[in-house]
Amino acid sequence: MRVFNTSGPCDPAKHYTVMRETLVAEGQKLVDQGRYFTIFSPRQAGKTTWFQLLFRQLQEQGYTPVWISLEGLSTLASAEFYHALAHFLRRELAVEGIELTETFANAFQVQLFFEKLHEKVDRLVLVIDEFEAIPEAVTSEFLHSLRALYHKRQFHALHSLILVGVSTLAELVVSSASPFNVIDQLQITYFTFAEVNELIQQHVSESGQVFDAVVIKAIYDNTQGQPGLVCALCQHLVTKVVPDFSQPVRMEHFYPTLKHFLTARFDKNILNVVQKAREKQEFMLRVLFDETPIPFNLNEPTIAYLYAHGAIDNVDGFVQVPVPLYSKALIAAFRPSINGETDYFIVSAHETLRAYITPDGLNLHALLTKYQEYVRRRGFRAFNTEQLKESAWHYSLDGFINFFIERLGGQTFIEVPSGRGRTDILILYRGQKSIIETKIFSDQTYFQQGKEQLADYLASEGVSEGYYVVFSRKHSEQDTVYFDESIAGKRIHTYIIRAALQPPSRRRRSSASSTA
Q1: Has this prediction a pTM greater than 0.90?
Q2: 193 DSSP assignment
Q3: CA distance 168 to 183
Q4: Which residue in 277, 328, 281, 333 sits closest to 307, CA to CA?
């Protein structure tokens, strides 16, 4: 029986594999046309598996496909780079039964190498992976050499060339220093929902273990089809959580798996995104928590850097985190360390948790009313973090809710439904699901839209009522801070949290300025 693969390229004989027929056909078409083209996508997106599937097809049609990587070569001097490149090419050609003694030490000799190779092979397809690692000193001359080869293909063996990187290589290969304007681009996209389902159904067919439909949807919703994450979640579910294949995989198994990935697992995909995002934390907090859209522009270095590493993407022209599981991991990673505020959540030695439980389950209205009271009592200290103010509100509420729900025996999870500036707290308690949506108040239009979005989200989750917590710097003490209304058949409880609070020293300075 095959397995879910979490390391290296997939072998269809050993691993459940999405064959990506459409993408392979696109690559085949470009190769047949003799094109030189780029492949780009973030790491762990399935590029290497795609190459192997394409190579298998090309070999059947008489091509000689060869793969090399420039990883680790970025610091080499010119002569060292060409020596390494020649070594890699001779080694891979030898695997195909093609022995060469020729080498090269400069860009012109690269052309001579491929002309000599023409004596032994007609249709070479060369893949150069990690092309961004090419030493800067040789980039322009090497691209000139490749362009010369493209225009004189009748004299050499290089039929088609594929340059591969973790992002689009357009800036590199069509920059002012480069003549390489003969390039096409092909992006390796994440799995579609149909492909995720196809992958899981291979396991169902071979093992007999059923995945509930809601679990398959949850895997896709959390990963958006990122191949590495899809396989990692599935592998953990069927080997660690439900290893008995006679038992179905259900949501009760998915939630602890999700928590494991967010808090306890060293997953290389998540770790890479978190590491890169930490380097640009202030910007990433804006992406995660601010409703103000950030236009996507690769000419902006921060956006280009985070995009290259898969932390953000272009969604309808604006910057967003493309994978909800990444958003959840980032929110968890940026969570401030404990600052002592938990000491003020419970103010009386006689206070119990009974007020937050009813015969039907949780009394979230009582808990959120208590949070309003806590913020009034603690003032600016309730948001005393070193994070951006937009995220301080979220972390304050999240910490408060989690404090009480854990003591009641429930669990909390962060959810990130579509839409800028939206974060939800999902609560699981004795088989019941509750949803709290948080937002920053900007104006009445967005405020009302948030209620409608929450109603739609409740409908998709099969929940009858939800809680809408809105932090506002604009509401006064005279404004109503609680609403109970029905929207699209769902009961929505709205809580306004007045957050226009300053430390006393600032208020004194403001007062003194106005007096003066």
Answers
A1: no
A2: H
A3: 12
A4: 277
Pairing of strands 465-472, 423-429: unpaired
Residue 502 has pLDDT above 90, yes or no: no
Question: Is the dihedral angle over the CA atoms 171, 177, 181, 184 positive or is it negative?
Answer: negative
Spatial separation of the C-alpha atoms in residues 23 and 58, rounded to whole Å: 14
Amino acid at 118: H
Q: Is the pLDDT of residue 144 over 90?
A: no
Q: What is the pLDDT of residues 104-128, one digit of tens each?
A: 999 999 999 999 999 999 899 999 9
Structure tokens given for 374: 């806590």
Q: For residue range 157-176, what is the model confidence (pLDDT) as tens digits?
A: 999 999 887 655 555 555 53
Structure tokens at 51: 């190459």
CB 215 within 8 A of CB 251: yes
Query: Which among 141, 161, 140 is positioned nearest to 66, based on CA atoms?
Result: 161
Q: What is the residue type of 254?
A: F
User: What pLDDT does residue 421 have?
Assistant: 54
Backbone phi and psi for residue 154, each to the nearest 5 degrees, phi listed first: -70, -15
Mean pLDDT on 493-515? 63
475/177: higher pLDDT: 475
pLDDT given at position 503:
55
CB distance 258 to 327 below 8 Å: no
Q: Residue type at 196?
A: V
- Does residue 117 sit in helix, strand or coil? helix
**Average pLDDT score over the chain:** 88
CA 242 to chain centre: 26
HSE (side-chain half, CA atoms, 13 Å) at 344: 17
Copy the structure tokens of residue 204. Answer: 């169902």
DSSP state of 388: -
CA distance 405 to 402: 5
Task: Give which of 254, 177, 269, 270 is closest to 221, Cα–Cα.
Answer: 254
Q: What is the rounded distance in angstroms from the CA atom of residue 288 to the CA atom of residue 391?
A: 8
Instruction: Quote the pLDDT of residue 388.
Output: 42
Token readout for 213 is 């439909």
Cβ–Cβ < 8 Å for 102, 114: no
Distance (Å, rounded) from C-alpha 206 to C-alpha 363? 45
Q: Residue-wise over 279-303: b if at least 16 C-beta within 10 A, else e?
A: ebeebbbbbbbbbeebebeeeeebb
Q: Quick check: 365 and 306 in contact, CB under 8 A?
A: no
- What mean pLDDT is predicted for residues 48-72? 93
Residue 56: CB partners within 8 Å, gap ≥ 6?
none
The three-class DSSP label of residue 465 is strand
User: And the tokens for 358?
Assistant: 């009813």
